[in-house]
Amino acid sequence: MPDPSSNGADRINCYALVAYIPGILGSFFDQLRRDLEPDSLAPRAHLTVLPPRGLATTVAPEDAWAELQRKLLGFQPFRIAVGRAEVFPGTNVVYFSLDQGWDELQGLHRHLADGCLQFREPFPYHPHITIAQKLTPEQAVAIQQAAQRRWDEVYRGPRQFSVETLSFVQNSSRDVWYDLAAIDLFDATPVR
Fold first, then answer.
1. How many angstroms separate the CA atoms of 116 and 64, rounded?
2. pLDDT for 18-77, tens place per residue?
3. Cα angle at 172 between 95 and 94, to 5 degrees?
4. Using N-to-C axis directions, what is the helix angle for 102-112 and 61-72, rounded to 10°?
5. Domains with residue ranges and CATH for the chain
6. In a 3-state reduction of DSSP, which class is residue 172?
7. Which regions of 76-176 does DSSP assign to beta strands (E)?
8. What is 62-103 written as a DSSP string?
9. pTM for the model
């Protein structure tokens, strides 16, 4: 695992585990987020497996990563099918729902969210693909409708993908996420 203190002195105690969305589908969501939330830093399109969390002062990122590797042994890749654009009430986050893969992500989250990665999450875990956030209710409705129109009328690529690799990431004070390490679910061995 790369040294978290290198290349980014602004890193903070905030980590997550994500599955990046590959290929044309990932590129579509990347562009959609850039277009509909232009002031965003627009991180790479992803599904969050473990939402952002701090580590206890006694836990090094390397220890958290080692625990993740142990816990992921035996997990196999699984399919995700993307659903519709929706809005989380209360937070006004615009996201795409999942038509397939929900149960697998819920199980993976439950399995990984304890030990040194235990954290009191502010919301119940709800797998999704974020499109825009930090919006007023009116902005959220307009962006949700625009995102759904593009999904229905413009996008012609695959609407499914396989979760095969998970990435351990760290946030910074500028809200830029850094990839620390990744693991393939085929045999749960680190890929970098």
1. 6
2. 999 999 999 999 999 999 987 777 678 999 999 999 999 999 999 999 999 999 998 999
3. 10
4. 130
5. 11-190 (3.90.1140.10)
6. strand
7. 78-87, 94-100, 129-132, 160-163, 165-172
8. HHHHHHHHHHHTT---EEEEEEEEEE-TTT--EEEEEEESHH
9. 0.90
Cα–Cα distance between 185 and 166 in angstroms, integer?
7
Instruction: Decide: 174 and 165 in contact? Cβ < 8 Å.
Output: no
CA distances from 121 to 24, 45, 138, 167 (A): 31, 21, 27, 19
Report whether 121 contacts 58 (CB < 8 A).
no
Q: Pairing relation of β-strands 94-100 and 11-20?
A: unpaired
**Burial profile 144-177: b = 16 or more Cβ within 10 angstroms, e = fewer:** bebbbebbeeebeeebebebebbbbbbbeeeeeb
Instruction: Round to whole Å and give the CA distance between 134 and 142.
Output: 14
Smallest Cα–Cα separation from 131: which of 86, 80, 177, 81? 86
